[in-house]
Amino acid sequence: MTIVIEDVHFSYSARPVLRGVTAHIARGEVLGLLGPNGAGKSTLLRCMDRVLTPTQGVILVDGRKVANIPLRELAKLVTHVPQDAARAFPHRVFELVLLGRRAKMGLRPREQDLEAVRESLRWFNLEELAWRNVNELSGGERQRVMLAWALAAEPRVLLLDEPTSSLDLRYQLGVLATLRELARHRQITTVMAMHDINLAARFCDRLILLKSGVVHAMGSPVQVLTPENIREVYSVDAVVRLHGGTPYVIPWSDEVCFVPR
Q1: Does any domain span residue 193?
Q2: C-alpha dist (Å) from residue 88 to 41, 82, 96, 237
Q3: Which residues contact 111 (CB under 8 A, 6 or more apart)?
Q4: Based on the structure, what is the number of domains in the chain?
Q5: What tens digit of pLDDT does each residue of 134-188 get?
Q6: Buried b / exposed e across 225-250, counting CB within 10 Å, b at 16+?
Q7: Residue 28 lies inside a defined structural domain of this protein
């Protein structure tokens, strides 16, 4: 599904968080949202999922205004995984992932529902944890469970807030490679808010760099991740190198220190 964001503004009370955000996201694209804390990344995801309502502007999914899509129908199309979501679910892994089917499932799970759960567990290497209690798992394992929960819903749009939080290096790479393959294989339009610039550069088709709720830069990783943009948005000097056509950023500021000298 395509997503169009047109001139979206949002404020918490009198504090503006998003200011005129405009973007077009293609079907099956993996888009990364970058920016410092408070830049508006999570707020934009919540507006796309209709958790929040923009104070101005419009968001469209396949030409339909998100605000006009009935919530039950929207739940079948869009799945949003916020940060630390798994902490709220004292279920076994299989049961929690099955809950991801709730928008498409009747009173009792059908064989196709159970197979969707099994397949989701396989995608994220969770078969051996299927009957463990979620509260007994590590933070990284819980993160993978929530991604399986999202996949079990068979969404057309996947919104992820820090999908690699709590994951070790191996699983960061594995999870992002899996999400990119799912976007290609199932044509799932995927939007990820991320802090790790280099992971975003490697696995996202395009990036949006936010600064104080404004789109500072948008385009391919090579176009967005320049020393000038890093300095202007993060107030950090950096060296940018290319490896196989993918940029990687090396922060190089000795002056960033919160301890008075």
Answers
A1: yes
A2: 22, 12, 11, 39
A3: none
A4: 1
A5: 988 988 899 999 999 999 999 999 999 999 988 999 999 999 999 999 999 999 9
A6: bbeebbeebbebebebeeeeeebbbe
A7: yes
The verdict on residue 122 lying in a domain is no
Report the CATH number at residue 68: 3.40.50.300
- The boundaries of the domain holding residue 52 are 3-84+155-251
Owner of token pair 């993060």: 234
- Report the distance separating Cα 115 and Cα 117, nearest Å: 5
64 assigned to some structural domain: yes
Q: Is the pTM of this model over 0.85?
A: yes
